[in-house]
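Entry for the shared binder. Reason: the reviewer on the internal report wants the predicted structure included alongside the sequence.
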Amino acid sequence: MELFFDLVYVFAVTQLSQTLLHHLTARGALETLVLFGAVWWAWNYTAWATNWIDPDHPRVRALLVVLMLIGLIMSAAIPEAFHDRAWTFAGAYVALQALRSAFMVVAFGSDRMARNYAQLLAWTSIAGVFWLAGALADGDARLGLWILALLLDLGAPMHGFALPRFGGTPIEDWTLAGGHLAERCHLVLLIAIGESVLAVGSTFGDAHATVAVVAAFVVGFAGTVSLWWIYFVRHAEVATRAIAGAETQAARIGRAGYAYAHAVMVGGVIVVAVAIDRTIAHPGGTTSAATAAVVLGGPALYLAGNAMFKRTVSGGWPPSRAVAIAALAVLVPFAHLVSPLALSAGAALVTVALAARESMRSRLGGAL
């Protein structure tokens, strides 16, 4: 049932990448970031909820189907969310978040988790006021209100959903099946990487197969594989074992390493998909600032999220990620001097080299 539920997010990721692709400006990037934050938070809270309720129970299954429907409406509104379909997007998002949290309050009854979810519901409602107010506003006012709403949503877990007179809910009170949450995050990251594969295939299929286009196709595919390799070859499994055995610290690891760090990684993969699309469509000529930003920024964002993830699980910052991000930064001054294909090849070389290093460490039994 959870895999079926995730199909909505296949569509949502595609909508987000296409929205960014067609609005590749600073304003467009900020708007897409806000929309992505809402989409991610809706998925993330559902992934956490299914740690405590059985997805195969008839009532839970019905809940997930309803959430799928609302999520589909929300995802369909993404391209016009800052224009004519603001109310559809915001209304669907608030309804999805409130319905799920209310269901959890009722499902837990007198359990302490009912109090936790009641306070989560309260903060969802507070943020929801600003989401809906933003839908009624226009232009900069809408963007500002939605940024505030997203910050309220993302920040609420950091202070334990604290409310006057009631205090907060300590992270230790959120008992968690860590292995389940890890598996759910693996799957949604794979969905995002799948968007890059779709970008490689669909854009290449529509393009005239010149030498430069074929080269861009190969570079895009190699870069996508390297992103998968960096995360899924050994590290994902080791991290799953770590959170599954963490007991009282599982929720803390889940919040920092999976709720937040995986959001950064998924966001990075969406940007990479846009970079691949632009490079295959226009491999030659001068690299624009917008193209350079996604070609270099996407992998850097992904690696930053990966470093956050590894830091949460292992307790130390991985120097290899910092070196790779620094290597991408070195390419920035040369971006306008080379073609998009050459710049993409440079970025892919960085992530492929890191993937190769991780593969060698895996064979040698290196630490996470």
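Summary line for the report: The chain has a mean pLDDT of 91.
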